[in-house]
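Continuing the batch. This is chain 6 of the set; chains 1 through 5 are on the previous pages. Same settings as before, nothing changed between runs. Recording input and output for traceability.
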Amino acid sequence: MSEEWVDLEEFYVCLDAFIGEVGSKGSEVFRFYIVSPKWLLRALESSDEIELGRGYLIASAYNISKVEYRIKTLLGNCQRTCWDDVIHAISRYAIWESEQ
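Output for chain 6:
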C-alpha cells in the first residue's frame, strides 16, 4: 500500500491485492486506487490526460473496512469455473500486475 494525503478530504491510496486460486501456492497481483473526489478533481485539473475509471474506487472518506468489504464484494462477483476467466473478470475492476 502506498498513500498520498493532502488533507482528510483529499487522499490517494494505492492498494495491491494478492489473489490466488484455491489450493495454489502462487497469486496474481491486482491494483486498486482508492481516491477522494477532491483528489481526483485536483489530478484532472493539473493534467491534460484523461483518466480511465478502471482500478479506481472513489470514496468521500477513507475507511479501510469499507474498502475491504467493497473489494470482497467485487471479487465475489468474479467467481468462474476457470482461473483465466476469473482473472479477466477481476480485470474489469482492478488493474492486473501484468498490465502495468
